[in-house]
């Protein structure tokens, strides 16, 4: 087996540690992009990524580099840093042999750095530690190097210093990638096995799948088979990933590239599937990464019910580009037809809803996010019912217990914020497991928390309490029984299922009261009285009343007998009573969004 002049690597780091900027410098240095194509965050091609300064999608690009007279092909896969996009990171890691572990010299190692590092180590990737932003005023280069040595136990001299902004140390990084990252081990003579790690939808070409070839050779116009679906297609176009796709006649083991087969249906390609030749198929697929398990569920409904099919198409196309999104149709009494969608976290939900509005022009309503629960019935205590939606909860009298998901979290922060952060976690029903001083200036808090408590506003509060210095990461540990109740919101005695939520009994009264107060401010007045009630089962725990708009029916009466005015007022009273019986209360979009911001 000859050593191929190919290197595949990804960059892993915490959010905002300079991955995208460093990627820009690597592309500059290898002349992969021209002066005209240069711009900041070049690989972040979504408007949302640029506005927020975060990477949402993995992006792959090939660079050519000559080192000691030998030409090398270097495939860089840039990865996101936020905990909600760790699935993207796992897909990138499965396609690589090495990873740059990037640590900000001004902030040190953060929670997500550690999480992504363990992911890389599990996949036996060669780790190249890099201290970034060394030219900034607050850089603690030696301290950060100590942290890296403690974390991965590498020799101190193996740690590289760099600055993505000014281009310091870029040559050293490329040299380390070539010398330290192993060449791909693929056999060109073996049966074709290429793993799909991403895909996008092009309205003119259909689905474009990005893959990494582990074994074999693929040529243009070959008949290929997708092992997962068992369907055969023709490879109309194959090529490598430059800034713009570059068609090629053939791709070999170790290459990262794309394939266009003219597939128009999003469901026919699955990220993680293996492509092989139909004439000489491989019997099994490449073991890549596990199926994603969504943790936060919310309903997405079109504002106009006629747009239901358009919304379905948009979600199908978005799922191609983001395989961690799952959805299924559902109906709501208040909102009509829509979809129950599963997300990896609240930022993921926010990004998906914004992308639906911007990229697909969808006007949507997003309901209150929920986590999934396990419910066990009294008559069959071993039978498990999955609840993604509070409206699916069986009759309370038949329930034995409800279990909720718990997480183990790591918070890395400065010592002065420990007290406030412990208070925050205790408010959220947290259990303190450990407190470790990594250095005199950095401490790691380990907590167990119910996932439902961090879904709403936990991340925002964590950042504001610690003035942005705390970093947060978590892993799901399993399900535990909890004293959970279903909280319903009623408008004039009718349940609005979009506002229903599962909540811990101790917090139900406070949450219900605040939600009723918020809705009172947001629902416009009608010509009849509106009662807003929060209820647990048959018991009302909070109530607010929106008084009726009063039309002055006696305005035309001037002087004369009082009985005439009374007659008009009595007639109005009867009319209002009738309106209250038959009138419908329109709930504005802001009311649904307000639930997410209850603690503002």
What this model shows, in words?
This protein is α+β, with helices and mostly antiparallel strands. The chain folds into five domains: 6-180, P-loop containing nucleotide triphosphate hydrolases (Rossmann fold, 3-Layer(aba) Sandwich); 193-277, Elongation Factor Tu (Ef-tu), domain 3; 296-368, Alpha-Beta Plaits, CATH 3.30.70; 373-482, Alpha-Beta Plaits, CATH 3.30.70.240; 485-596, 2-Layer Sandwich (Alpha-Beta Plaits), CATH 3.30.70. The chain is 27% helix and 34% strand. It contains 14 helices and 32 strands. 43% of the residues are buried.
Task: Summarize the SSE layout with pairings.
Blueprint: E1 6-12, H1 19-29, H2 47-52, E2 59-67, E3 70-78, H3 86-94, E4 98-104, H4 111-122, E5 126-132, H5 141-152, E6 160-161, H6 170-180, E7 193-202, E8 206-215, E9 217-219, E10 223-226, E11 231-234, E12 237-241, E13 245-248, E14 250-252, E15 256-260, E16 274-277, E17 296-302, H7 308-321, E18 326-332, E19 336-343, H8 346-360, E20 364-366, E21 370-371, E22 373-377, E23 384-387, E24 399-413, H9 418-427, E25 431-439, E26 442-450, H10 451-455, H11 458-465, E27 471-481, E28 484-491, E29 494-495, E30 501-504, H12 505-522, E31 530-536, E32 539-546, H13 562-582, H14 589-596
Parallel strand pairs: 1-3, 1-4, 4-5, 5-6
Antiparallel strand pairs: 2-3, 7-8, 7-16, 8-15, 9-14, 10-11, 10-16, 12-13, 12-15, 17-19, 17-20, 17-21, 18-19, 22-23, 22-24, 24-26, 24-27, 25-26, 28-29, 28-30, 28-31, 31-32
């Amino acid at each position: 087996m000859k050593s191929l002049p190919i290197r595949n690597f990804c960059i892993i780091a915490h959010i905002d540690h300079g991955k995208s900027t460093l990627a820009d410098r690597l592309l500059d240095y290898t002349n992969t992009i021209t002066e005209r194509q240069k711009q900041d965050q070049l690989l972040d091609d979504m408007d949302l990524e640029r506005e927020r300064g975060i990477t949402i999608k993995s992006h792959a690009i090939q660079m050519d580099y000559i080192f000691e007279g030998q030409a090398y092909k270097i495939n860089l896969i840039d990865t996101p840093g936020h905990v909600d996009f760790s699935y993207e990171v796992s897909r990138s890691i499965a396609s690589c042999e090495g990873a740059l572990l990037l640590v900000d010299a001004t902030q040190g190692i953060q929670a997500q750095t550690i999480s992504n590092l363990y992911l890389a180590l599990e996949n036996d990737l060669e780790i190249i530690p890099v201290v970034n932003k060394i030219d900034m005023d607050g850089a603690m280069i030696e301290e950060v190097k100590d942290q890296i040595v403690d974390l991965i136990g590498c020799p101190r001299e193996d740690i590289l210093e760099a600055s993505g902004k000014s281009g310091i140390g870029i040559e050293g990084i490329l040299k380390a990638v070539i010398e330290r990252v192993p060449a791909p081990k693929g056999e060109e003579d073996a049966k074709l096995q290429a793993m799909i790690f991403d895909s996008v939808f092009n309205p003119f070409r259909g689905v474009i799948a990005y893959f990494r070839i582990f074994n074999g050779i693929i040529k243009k116009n070959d008949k290929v088979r997708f092992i997962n679906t068992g369907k055969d297609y023709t490879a109309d176009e194959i090529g490598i990933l430059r800034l713009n796709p570059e068609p090629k006649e053939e791709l070999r083991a170790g290459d990262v590239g794309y394939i266009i087969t003219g597939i128009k249906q999003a469901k026919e390609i699955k990220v993680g599937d293996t492509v092989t030749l139909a004439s000489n198929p491989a019997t099994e697929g490449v073991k890549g990464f596990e199926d994603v398990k969504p943790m936060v569920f919310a309903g997405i409904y079109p504002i106009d019910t006629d747009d239901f099919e358009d919304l379905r198409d948009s979600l199908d196309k978005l799922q191609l580009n983001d395989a961690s999104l799952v959805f299924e149709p559902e109906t709501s009494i208040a909102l009509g037809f829509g979809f129950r969608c599963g997300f990896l976290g609240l930022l993921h939900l926010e990004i998906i809803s914004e992308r639906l509005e911007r990229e697909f022009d969808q006007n949507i309503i997003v309901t209150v996010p929920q986590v999934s629960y396990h419910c066990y019935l009294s008559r069959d205590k071993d039978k498990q019912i999955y609840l993604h939606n509070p409206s699916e909860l069986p009759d309370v009298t038949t329930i034995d217990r409800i279990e909720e998901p718990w997480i183990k979290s790591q918070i890395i922060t400065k010592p002065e914020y420990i007290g406030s952060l412990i208070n925050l976690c205790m408010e959220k029903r947290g259990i303190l497991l450990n407190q470790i001083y990594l250095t005199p200036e950095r401490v790691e808090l380990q907590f167990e928390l119910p996932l439902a408590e961090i879904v709403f506003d936990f991340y925002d509060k964590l950042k504001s309490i610690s003035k942005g210095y705390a970093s947060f990461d978590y892993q799901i540990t399993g399900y535990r029984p909890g004293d959970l109740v279903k909280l319903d919101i009623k408008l004039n005695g009718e349940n609005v299922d979009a506002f229903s939520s599962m909540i811990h009994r101790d917090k139900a009264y406070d949450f219900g009261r605040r939600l009723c107060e918020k809705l009172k401010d947001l629902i416009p007045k009608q010509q009849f009285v509106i009662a807003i009630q929060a209820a647990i089962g048959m018991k009302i725990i909070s109530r607010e009343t929106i008084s009726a708009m009063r039309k002055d029916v006696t305005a035309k009466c001037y002087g004369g007998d009082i009985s005439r005015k009374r007659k008009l007022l009595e007639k109005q009273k009867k009319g209002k009573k009738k309106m209250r019986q038959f009138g419908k209360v329109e709930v504005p979009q802001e009311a649904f969004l307000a639930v997410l911001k209850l603690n503002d």
